Every structure is written in structure tokens, then in C-alpha cells.
Fold this protein.
Amino acid sequence: MFSREENEFLTRVGPGTPMGTLMRRYWIPALLSEEILLRDCAPARVKLLGEDLVAFRDSEGRVGLLGEHCSHRGTSLFYGRNEACGLTCIYHGWKYDVDGNVLETPAEPADSDFKKKIHHTAYPCKEVAGIVFTYMGPRDKLPLLPAYEWVSLPADRMHVVKAYLECNYLQGIEGDFDSSHTSFLHCNNLTDLARLNRDGAPTLEAEETAYGMRAVSIRKLGADQSYVRISPFIMPAFSIVPGPATAKFDENDSRAFRFWIPSDDTSTWFYILTMRDTPFSDEERGAARSWIDSSYRRIRNASNHYLQDRELQRTRTYSGIKAVIPAEQDACATESMGPIYDRTQEHLGYSDKTIIALRKTLLLAAKSLQEGREPPHVILDSKHNDFSRLRAVKGVLPANRSWRELPELEKVVV
Ligand code: FES
Ligand SMILES: [Fe+2]
């Protein structure tokens, strides 16, 4: 049974909250590079961990992420002038650089040193894989960005998209550690009842790791084989899930990172970063985002009942939601729980074992930080910063063998 206190503890992310403090100790996605593509282009509004921010790219290409409201009297810098290496408030002309220094206060007397006494909220940024990452924690604790596979992969081998989720981040990421739902929610062929019978109730395991946790699901495959899926959860809210069980195992399915980043307590930006060894064409990039609109909102959303088709549900698919990617069906399942699901009302079963493990990992990390211990996977030493082989895994084994004997594990680290 999950208590009200635990639910509050895990879901609130604003400044000063336990989870908000934990998440602020890692580099997290703030926005896509394409949202501020050009030097001196229009700034972008960013709401992140409950804070109102504004992102801009200055005349030299540097990215800044500033508190949205001007340090003078609060006008939004979203409307500011982005020019000559700074963002200038349109009310009285206070000008800021990417580091939050106040460069000009033109309405003050010429000999005033007022501007030197003020420092505006500014978070450091790094652009990697088409994403602007930021660090919102204490400066003296600034960690390295872990060197995941996508940190050094050429840009044309990656595709990234983000989408808005109208609920708390935890509901979103819990779906990635809920192996049994794939047999139901994502069953797109009702005649494939064998699949439902085979997959419906996998054996589950969860283990703590240095980067967070790994979740393992094991399904019977006939009398003498098992089908194993291993999904890493990476602190503070990232995941890698193996792609669907298709006849042909495409290992690129098991490379994609998913980032579940709280915009505030009741909304989330989730990013999907796909990788492969050959370039993506423009056509493929377009197709890979055909399920969102130009403001990264899903075309199938709560306001249109996810375009659910009851006839389709009756005759063809389990959900009746015809999706370009499974995340659209996931969004219906997780958003319809409400903005922050009251977990005192749930009834957890065996199939929720890995979700319980995920919550425990987050609870423990936030509690140990409260007690003054460093949270897991905060990387400070470049000698211990190779996560390039961190992937999800899926594979088939003789039924009497442990998942640790999967031959696929030799090439990767999970
Ligand atoms: S409110 Fe921004 S310069 Fe005055
Ligand atoms: Fe799903």
C-alpha cells in the first residue's frame, strides 16, 4: 500500500521538494535545439521542474536558460530582444547574457554600478543529440553529463522528438516498467489471442544497479524456451525499453532512450531519442513525428478521446486507438489516471513488481540525498564515465537458463 505521504514525496518536483531536489542534481533535457535553432532567434518559453524559464541562442550561438521574469520588475523575457549577445527586457532595457550577468541597465544613471550587484537566475546548458540539457542544482555539485551512446554518435544517426504528457512524470515512466501491459494495451491484432495467452503474465525481476535499476521480464515461449526483456531505468527519470517482440529482432529497438522530464507537477515532456548505424532521411524524420503537431502536442489527446475508434476496438485492436507509436496508447492509459494519480487507491499485484522497485529506487535516492549522501549515478570522475554500451536487451533462451546467460548480454551493459 502506497501512502499519501509517499505519493506526495515522489510526485512533487518544485524547488525544495525532495524529488525536485534530487532531479536538480542531474543534467536533464530542457528543450530541443530546433526550438531555438538560429543565433538571435526568438526565445522559447520553458517550464521545467515547476520553474518558469526562457531559453535563447545568442549572437555567438551560445544557449542560455534564464529565469523568465526580469530581475528589475518581472516582465517576461520571452518578449525580449535577442541581439548583440544578450537578451534584453522590453520594459526598461535590462540586458542579460547567457550566464545571467546583467550587462546593461540603461534607465539607471550612467555612473550606477547597480547591475553588478544583481545576478539573474541562469542554468548552464549543453547541447547534445539535438537536445539542450541543463543542470539546475547547486553549482559546486555540477556533475559530468554521463557519456551515453548518443553523446558521441554522429547527428545524422539520431532522431529525437518530444511530446507533451498531461500528467505527472511518474505515471509516464511507470509505464516503461510495466511489462505486462504490452500484451493488452498494445495488442493491435485481436485475432492474435495466442500472444495474449502467452505474454499476459510474465515472471518479473528487478535489481538495483549503479545507474538506477534494471527490470527483467521473462515469458514462456512454448514448452522449452523463454523470451526475456531487460529494461534499464537510469537516474533521475530516463529509460531504455526493448522494442516490440517481432520475428526479426532489430537491435536498434533496444537503443532508444526515453526521458520523462517534469514540466511541473501535473505535466511532463517526454523525449524519445532513436539511434541507428545509418543516416535518417528527411522523410523518415518527418514520419517519426507525424503523431505530434508543431507545438509538440499529440494529435491523439484527452480533448478528442485519443481518437478512439469503438468499431476498431470491437473488431480489431484491444484499445481502439490506432497509433503511429505505442506511446500514444500509453498516454491514454496514464493521463486518464488524472493529473497526479492518488496511489492510495490502487491495488498492486504481482505484475506491478517492477513498478514497486522503480518507486523504491527513487524514494531511496531522494531520502539518502535528504540525509546528506550523494545520489546514485551523479558522475564526477571522467575515468568512470563510459555508458556507451548501456542498452535494453531482448532475447530467447532455453527455459531452464537464467537471463544472465543471454548471449545478447555480451555486447551490452544493462
Ligand atoms: S521589468 Fe525588465 S527592465 Fe524593467
Ligand atoms: Fe506501453
